[in-house]
Specification:
Elements: E1 2-5, H1 13-19, E2 23-26, H2 35-41, E3 47-50, H3 58-63, E4 69-72, H4 82-87, E5 91-93, H5 100-115, H6 118-126, E6 147-151, H7 155-165, E7 170-174, H8 180-186, E8 189-190, H9 193-199, E9 202-205, H10 219-222, E10 230-233, H11 242-250, E11 256-259, H12 270-274, E12 278-280, H13 289-307
Parallel strand pairs: 1-2, 1-3, 3-4, 4-5, 6-7, 6-9, 7-8, 9-10, 10-11, 11-12
Helix pairs in contact: 1-13, 5-7
């Protein structure tokens, strides 16, 4: 049976798949596989190990002649038409759990970068503009005593809250359902989104992208933020109405923002590059050697199970 891997990945999942008797094809270039080539290669694949860069839409699914599983090497799966996949009895899996800690670590790094104005300080040093200590230079603010609003209290939201708890913050959250364990662990209260936007000094976004969450943090909600507040997004860019957030940043109506994801990724709104009060990262939430290898191997093991007639490990 044939397996297509759409990019060379850490952890060498191709070796594991070959060891289990599968014929493996890997797109070797470190960029998204061209659409035409992808549609051609999937025609005779029994399984596809895909990334967020591959659009598994109706056209792609119709091109499968014998594919049993698409193993998405990501926790998100907004690149896949799940409803049509289900209709065609195509199994879809993702890679939850293994990237929780890495993404939560990066979220806290972004928060600290924003509240302590690290980008401005680092740029000052690189441009040789530091001419000595000054009492009012690059003043940020303490985390202790601040209110952190977690938008999406799932695995990553909870891991982020756990890390921030050590800084002495108060934690509130917004989620579509009540999270009893979250509330018990962090002595936290569930609030509606508008209240969270109003009350929070720091807002951290951890929602999956869906029709319901697209632009859920819109112009109206963003306008409720405190002038001293920051917002950090390590989930999906389309959850935020990015242009509205940029306007607030330009007008200094909020303190700062941290981005790891963007609305039109990899195309970034050029205004973001000109703003001093933003910290920009290139979608590296899960980018540790250990995490990316674990993601790739989990995706490969999902394929091994399904092609051997067993249940997938992490089905969507």
């Amino acid at each position: 049976m044939k397996v297509l891997i759409t990019r060379k990945l850490p952890g060498e999942p191709e070796k594991l798949l070959k060891k289990n008797g599968f014929k493996v094809s890997v797109y070797k270039e470190d960029k998204a596989i061209p659409r035409g080539e992808f549609l051609e290669k999937i025609k005779d694949a029994d399984a596809v190990l895909s990334l967020l860069t591959e659009k598994i839409d109706k056209e792609a699914i119709d091109n499968f002649s014998k594919c049993k599983i698409v193993a998405n090497c990501a926790v998100g799966y907004n690149n896949i038409d799940i409803a049509y996949a289900k209709e065609r009895k195509l199994i879809v899996t993702n890679t939850p759990y293994v990237l929780t800690d890495a993404t939560a670590d990066l979220t806290v790094a972004l928060i600290l970068a924003c509240v302590r104005r690290l980008r401005e300080g680092e740029q000052m040093m690189r441009e040789n503009k530091f001419d000595g200590w000054k009492p009012n230079m690059l003043l940020g603010f303490d985390l202790k005593g601040k209110t952190v609003g977690i938008i999406g209290a799932g695995r990553i939201g909870r891991a982020t809250a756990r890390r921030l708890k050590g800084f002495g913050v108060k934690i509130i959250y917004f989620d579509r359902k009540k999270r009893d364990e979250f509330e018990t662990e962090f002595l936290s209260t569930r609030v509606n989104l508008k209240e969270l936007m109003k009350q929070s000094d720091i807002i951290s976004v951890h929602l999956p992208l869906s029709k319901e969450t697209h632009h859920i943090i819109n112009k109206e909600n963003l306008s409720l933020m405190k002038k001293s507040a920051i917002i950090v997004n390590t989930s999906r860019g389309d959850i935020l109405e990015e242009k509205a957030l940029i306007r607030l940043l330009k007008q200094k109506k909020i303190f700062a923002a941290g981005f790891d994801v963007y609305e039109n990724e990899p195309n970034i709104n050029p205004d973001l590059r000109t703003l001093e009060n933003v910290f920009l990262l290139p979608h590296i939430g899960s980018a540790t050697v250990e995490t990316r290898a674990a993601m790739a191997l989990l995706a490969a093991n999902n394929i091994i199970n399904v092609l051997n007639g067993k249940e997938p490990i992490t089905p969507v």
